[in-house]
Specification:
The chain is of the alpha+beta class. Helix 2 (about 35-45) links the parallel strand 1 (about 20-25) and strand 2. The two termini are about 15 Å apart. The protein is elongated and about 55 Å long. Mean pLDDT is about 85; it is low at about 1-15. It has ten helices and 17 strands. Helix content is about 35%, strand content about 30%.
Length: about 300
């Protein structure tokens, strides 16, 4: 894992007046006019110039060749984890760095890199030379890399409930919650095949989270009314990952299987995918530098 040791004064002087590109997502509730205006001011206060703004769903992600042609070596991303995934993985192999800012609902990657700091504080730290390049570990699958983690199993249908909550869609919330309960109870569960661990009957949802030296694995279940109540409370707190679960250990690699065969629901950094009856996951380093202003977990 690369970590250039630049003294704070040299790094601050190097960043002073630096031109960057900024990626936002106007469709996100966190990217409203006031938030984007505050972001502009924070960059200005820290000595950065925004050379170009990209609205992700209109302009697409930045391309490495365009960044090289423009002489840009730093891209800031103020979006949710799913869009951040698309930007970061699209820049694999680029020799610049990405500054991840909390611009979504969960902001899990920003939390790994910066702790609980808000966007303005993170930008101020970077401008003051309190940032360093890191390549944190990620979860690798054949369907893509999870920078914050991958969820597998029929319980991934609960993501539709979270999306309905985010959009204040009451009818959609009721419908998606009913469907999620049906999926969680009636669809084939997911089991840990290699290594063999946890419940032999499997789980409605298994979460695979990258750590520095292993994959952290947790199994989620909902078997009783009390479990569904706990899941509902977790949803109201905007984090269904807080629902009832069991720790399944830390492993360098992991192979999951649907207990009764059939496709496996996946969420990669919150974005849905449909996997096969068996899927494998490994720990790997991110393939582009990310700026960190706090210890990477």
């Amino acid at each position: 894992m690369r970590e250039p040791r630049l003294c704070a004064r040299f790094y601050r002087d190097m960043l002073s007046g630096r031109t960057i590109w900024l990626v936002t997502n106007p469709a996100s509730g966190s990217n409203d006019e006031a938030a984007l205006s505050a972001l502009d001011q924070a960059f200005q206060n820290a000595g950065f110039r925004i050379g170009r703004k990209l609205a992700f769903h209109q302009d697409g992600p930045p391309e490495p060749e365009d960044l090289r042609a423009a002489g840009i070596d730093l891209v800031a991303v103020f979006t949710g984890d799913g869009t951040i995934n698309a930007v970061v993985t699209g820049l694999y192999g680029w020799d610049g760095a990405v500054l991840v800012l909390p611009g979504g609902t969960m902001n899990l990657l920003a939390g790994r890199l910066h702790g609980d700091a808000d966007a303005a504080e993170i930008i101020a730290r970077a401008g003051a030379g309190k940032a360093r390049r890191r390549r944190p570990q990620i979860v690798r699958s054949r369907w893509g890399d999870g920078l914050t983690g991958i969820l597998a199993g029929p319980g991934t249908s609960w993501n539709d409930v979270r999306e309905a909550m985010r959009e204040a869609d009451v009818l959609g919330l009721v419908s998606s919650a009913a469907e999620a309960i049906g999926e969680s109870t009636g669809s084939p569960k997911v089991v840990c095949r290699d290594p063999a661990c946890g419940r032999s009957e499997g789980y409605s949802l298994i979460m695979v989270t990258p750590e520095d030296d292993a994959l952290e694995v947790d199994g989620y279940y909902a078997e009783s009314f009390a479990d569904y109540a706990k899941q509902g409370i977790a949803l109201l707190r905007r984090n269904f990952r807080d629902g009832p679960h069991e720790w399944l250990g830390r492993h360098p690699t992991l192979r999951l299987a649907c207990a009764e065969g059939g496709p496996m629901g996946l969420l990669i950094d919150g974005e849905p995918r449909e996997g096969a009856a068996m899927e494998s996951f490994t720990l790997a380093p991110c393939e582009v530098d990310l700026l960190a202003t706090a210890d990477v977990r």
